[in-house]
Amino acid sequence: MVLGCLPVGGPPAGQQLVHDRTLTCAFFTPSESEAAPSFLFSTGPYRAVGDMSNFSGAAVTDLFAHLYGQAVATAPGLTSLQPAVENLAPIALGAVGRSPATDALARLFLVTFLEQATPDSSSVPPYDLPSPYRITRYDPRSGMVGPVMPNTVHFSPSRARVFAGDASAGTLFELQASRDLTGVNGPIFIGEDFYYVDAPPINKPGPPSGATLTRIKSNAEPEVLLTSSGWISVTVVEGGQTPRLLVRQSPATSALPGLFMLDVDTLASTPLPSDLANAGFLSASASGRWLLFSASAAPSSGAGFPTQTLTLVDWTTGARTDLSPSLVGAMTLSSSSPAEWRPGHDELWIQTDDGTFKITEPGDLVTAVSLAPGWGAAALQEAGTEWFSIFTRDGQHWFSRSSYASVPIYISSVDAPTSPPVQINPEGTWPKPYWTVGDGRLLVGASVEDEARQELFLVDPAAGTARALAGGGQVVAVGKTRALALLAWDGGRNCGALTLIDLASGAQTLLAEDVYLVAVDPGHLAEVPPESDVLAPGTAIAFLSRGRFASPYDGLWVTLLP
Q1: Which residue, 221, 310, 424, 516, has most beta carbons within 10 Å?
Q2: What does the DSSP 8-state code read for residue 52?
Q3: 477-487 pLDDT, tens per residue?
Q4: First and final CA of the chain: distance in angstroms?
């Protein structure tokens, strides 16, 4: 037998804050003050609580707060630290540590677990139990934890107002006050104003017994906007200078029909066609004027899918365009993305099952765009966002592929949809969510089997090029001129080499090895200006490192980008 000692190599760049191999996540949250740096947190190992076999248990972790930027002689171990919040639901998102939701006072709203008693055989089934998950508010400035609220949360645009609750009970938080509410269904913010439908619980037996639409302005008392003897539902219609509410009510009254638009400034109502009261509302155009509805028709025979009829309504003028199946083509409910508005335009793109597009400016005739047989749109997601669309966010380009189930993916100009497309990923690979550089270019990752081992391509749709940039890893953040990635990814240990990549030259700067999670400091404020460079020199990043064997370099580190 031969015994030896493996060298640990050089330390990662930066400052070690915690020496531990079991950390599961790290993230920054903004302090909301230019005088204070962002807050830094980590979460410990997962542990089981309750009876996980009977739907009354879960895997939870604890939250730890860390000071950084100060001299630390020796990084402490996790066992010597006091948790700030206990029993959190897991929050790690792959290799990227993103902040939970915070309000305008930097308070975190965290999902926590409350252990329940296990029901006996005579009680209701476990899946009928109330959810054990709750929202816990934590103030990193004071260290105060609480209160505990039902497990949904909604924020106003400024994050100065927060509603946490469900249909049975909830709390509307102002910056310095709060208000308890009951019976809140469909809570929404329009600007800083809070709207909700006050109705009995939907699982209450018997017919609906009435509902009210209520609004609460900042630091004001609730005001009832609409009362119905049946039910009310509302949907926000964005676009234009003033968002509006699309309101459905049943039964209709002599004063208000079953479907109408409500101006939230003047409270004026505009009736919509009564035959659309039972149709499904799909979306609104960029200006908010045109509303798209769909209705289903049974197939002519017992086989096949129901066909859809699309209806466009200009609620400001009453103009209406019915796109029947004979106009639209063979569009059915099986279409993955049957109709989508081009961002920033009142232009509707309709995908049909025969692989063509019908593009229309509302009120005009439908224009058919002849594509190659079997050619259709492909919806992709922008990394780190909820944007999932056939269009890029600026509305200048669209994604397509040769059939609904094949790769590769191509990108083309929206204004010239039949122009030669640019291939964004090689044959035999699958594209991952793309990153936007900010000047129209995209950074696209493509993988074959291991989704974490991707080939990275810098795609310039305007120039018609897709240039290989790096391989064997995954992107964690993209700035204006650089990308931060975990390369040389080891799928067995789920870690890689933290590397800064120059987008122009492809030059690589190694920052640390054996890294399994990275978090980028968003800055002091949660609302980052669009022109900001998230990877500018001097930006703080935190990362978790874990060597193949126990190492003094394991744990939480912070460094500044060169």
Answers
A1: 310
A2: G
A3: 999 999 999 99
A4: 45
